[in-house]
Amino acid sequence: MIKPYTAVGLVTTIYGCRTRDDVKHNLEEISHLIVAATWLSSLDLPVRLVAIPEGSLQGFNDEVLDLDHVEFARNIALDIPGPETRVLSDLARQWNVYIMAQAKARHEAFEDRFFNCGFIIDPQGEIILKHYKLATLYPVEHSVTPHDVWDRWIELYGRSLDAFYPVADTDIGRLGIMMANEGSYPENARGLAMNGAEVVYRAAYPHPHTGNEIFEISNRARALDNNMYVVAPNTGTYYLFPDSKTPIDCFGGRSMIVNYKGQVVGQHLYSGGSSYVAGTIDIEALRDHRARALWSNFMKDLRTEIYQLIYEQPIYPKNLYLDRPPYKHAEYKREVIDPQVRKMHEADIWAPPSEHTPREG
Amino acid sequence: MPETPSPNGASPSVHPADAVFGDIERPPRVPPYLAVGLSTTVRGISRRADCWVNLRHLANMIRGAFYTCSINHPIKLVALPEGAITGFTDEAFDVDHVVAARELFIDIPGEETAFLGELARQFDTYIIAQCKARWPEVMPDRFFNTAFIVSPRGEVVHKYAKNQVFPRERSCTPHDVYDRWVEVFGNGLEAFYPVYRSAEIGNVGTIVCNDGHYPEAVRALAMNGAEVVYRPSMSQPMTGNGAWEIQNRAHAVFNNVYVIAPNIGPYYLTPAVEHPYDVAGGMGHIVDYTGNVVCRSASGADTVVAALIDVEQLRLFRERTLRGNWLKDLRCEVYQQMYAQPIHPKNMWLERDPLGHEAMDEVFRANIRRLQERGTYTPPSAYFPGSRYLHPIADPADRTYERMREQLWEPWGAEMRPHLHAPDALVPSPPPPAAPADRATPASQGAQQDGESS
């Protein structure tokens, strides 16, 4: 039996990196924050899981400044495991917790490319899972995704749920990763749950989609649809560089932990400064619900033959970056987004507006 | 970005997007219109003819909604909740499926939909409604939980059969007769998630109640072109615990569709009920395509929700938005695998008649077991028995349809079924073959009720 425990999500102040060396500054921040977060949150039930939101190690300067992909891959992207994740491994050992975190990272099979990688460290300090983000923050994030190098990816990992939605079976439940924009698509949560996930990391999400509630709606809907916990801390204040003077809250707060019925069991509404969110995870209750509930235990009802029809035709092109580096922002809009919208019109999935409106920006 | 105009007003001669979208064929503009969803008190039926007591109430509610809501903008869409015409007698009393198909439910088109057609003509509106109905073109002795659309010309222009019933509902679904369904309607999204394409109200798709627990349902509708989605009725505790609204907001924002979600009102299970039970718990609402609740009603007791539907703005949003128009991003090759294996078995009611609640509980438990064996679900450390179906009628001898009708409905005929007796009844019931004494008088045929007009 897995006893109920506390999951903590850090709300981190972060500094964008000019070099890989700048990551140390952020790791230092995390080392301090994790002390406060686990100390106060463990007064009721012990803290067994700490989630560190996306961007906490490197910031988002590749996205904000439209940096060259290859240069970023060489100079700022991490290796997992590597010296930076070893700092986190030490923290996992010290506090006897699992750590879920994220970094833009290289992959040994793809030279000069970086992926957006979510990873889990166990209390012994070992990396037990790596998840490669499947949906970037279009159109301003140009991490390579497995689908962008589809042919090679399935050559390496096969065509299975494990290849795209890995799940780690641990003594605090079955853990999976769903980063940021991945959670905007119910399919990514379903894929994890169908592969066994019970506790899913979902961080972070930028403003205005926190203020207008899309972050909360998606976290709660994914949790409810799949009867799984969603641990969703949001990144805190962002300094563009370690020496920047202006802290900007690009994320808008609203960190939360959602239970397997879609209800918020821990929340932290703002993100000006460093803080944390905490909530109770009861894996045994989740398993009992999935084993006994006849109604709101939804995956058991799936009539999959019908749902296959939704995905028969390709929409987003696969293998986009098999033979070329990722596009930059303007190119990406021109070469991918606009043609994709046009494709939706031509397939009669979307009706175009009645008039063509010349663009202003 | 290079295409951004400079702050002093100089702009590039041709925006790159203009080259992509300049020449596309465009439909005429759909004027913004008002959609209303009704929440209505309902009386459970014991035979098809009883539908008229509910239809008469619905007619009055529609009149009321036009009076109160159609002031700023014209109403072009009226959505009735699930259960508004029949209640849920078959579900509550575990009525044998074939008996229910023969005795309780309707044909579409039929007298009941013709009546809604009259109202649609009178008020120049589309009406979306739900009723359990026979689909004789598919199979005899089956009923499907059907959503349908009646046009302002009074015709049924769309039919949808519910794909996911909840564990206390015994409607047949397309997947339950999958081979036959595909034979009749083909094997495409349109066969299972049809969309009605209208120049007046946009592209409308329908699901019913429990369908909306599955994100796949609205994704399928959106992939088939839907812009406005009808998702009526949900019961407690799903309305009170937030599930219903979160699902509808998620469907709306992540498919960029309007969701019209009226809830059923208080329910007289039988004519003997003095105080109706609000099984639904209110919370009808309409959500726009960015996930905002535009109108909500806490109560479901004979009330309405209303909101402006602007299909042109939705189309503009889908064309111009870079991020929040999610469908264009779907990496379908990745998603195919999660549906590669069957879970709920298909073709269950192709060769045999649908089973009752108690037997079906075991089918759902077998589904759970299947997921445990695949490793999708991890079993809990301890086994506890699950819930059992408990029939509301104590004596098993009284649970047959005939006994139930005789004991719970017939004694109340004159008092609680005024449509069968009042000379000014709006429309007569069609003569129920088993009970000639209940026939309405031919004089009431086609009479207008209460002399009201719009």
What can you tell me about this protein's structure?
The complex is a heterodimer of chains A (361) and B (454). Chain A is α/β, with parallel strands linked by helices and 361 residues long. Chain A has helices at residues 23-41, 61-64, 69-75, 83-95, 150-157, 161-164, 186-194, 214-226, 283-292, 304-307, 329-346; strands spanning 5-11, 14-15, 47-51, 98-107, 110-121, 127-132, 168-170, 173-177, 199-201, 229-232, 238-239, 255-258, 264-268, 275-281. Chain A has a single domain (5-309), classed as Carbon-nitrogen hydrolase (Nitrilase/N-carbamoyl-D-aminoacid amidohydrolase). In chain A, α8 links the parallel β9 and β10. In chain B, the strands form three sheets. In chain B, strands 1, 3, 4, 5, 6, 7 and 15 form a seven-stranded mixed sheet that branches. In chain B, α2 (51-69) packs parallel to α5 (111-123) and α8 runs parallel beside α9. Chain B starts with 15 loop residues before the first helix and ends in a 38-residue tail after the last helix. Classes of the chains: A alpha/beta (361), B alpha/beta (454). At the A-B interface, α7, α8, α9, α10 and α11 of A face α1, α8, α9, α10 and α11 of B.
